[in-house]
Write a structure and sequence with these properties.
The chain is mostly helical. The protein is 63% helix and 0% strand.
Length: 233
Amino acid sequence: DDIQFFNNKNRTQEEFFHAFNALTEARKQIVITCDTYPKDIQGLEDRLISRFDWGLTVQIEPPELEMRVAILKKKAEALRVTVDDDVAFLIAKNLRSNVRELEGALNKVVAYARFHGRQIGLEVAKEALKDLLHAHNRQLSIEHIQKTVADYYKIKVADMHSKKRTRVIARPRQVAMWLAKELTPMSLPAIGEAFGGRDHTTVLHACRTITELRLGDAQLNHDVHVLTQVLRG
């Protein structure tokens, strides 16, 4: 890990060179991490760089929201605890940088729940992570609502402004409009403008539609509840 620290350390590089050769001759797999491409490390021997180039070099980006939720679920399984979707989504939405940070937050929630003898739920997670969530919390805006809803439904933010009317696009857009009306002080015309220049009557229709559908659609009601809790932090 972190081979960039090999730079200008001749003895370390010499030992690693022989270890690398021994492992490859034994047909072992070697995984190496670095904060830059090997060829860009100053003070790293050419013979090491050439050997690193034998393998596959890939850039690792921070995990997307869906992946962060999946990681949290997997980590929870390893801890033998159950973490509901709303809890995983809350943590994943507020922590974006790396897996260690996600795991640390999950461990904090688990420890808090066990210490207080409570089940892991959204309220427990908020209490356990209140300082962390406060640090990451941003002023709620329509843009933030659109991004959160788009991430949740796995669509593009651009779909919030588009004229597409397919259900997989239109329903999340209506949910986002409903949330904007409920969670921000923005007027209906202002909300409509933020959603691709739509008329205020379109926003009103969307809000009424979501309100009515929630009465008979358990999944939609769950989605709106989770999104509301996450956005409120």
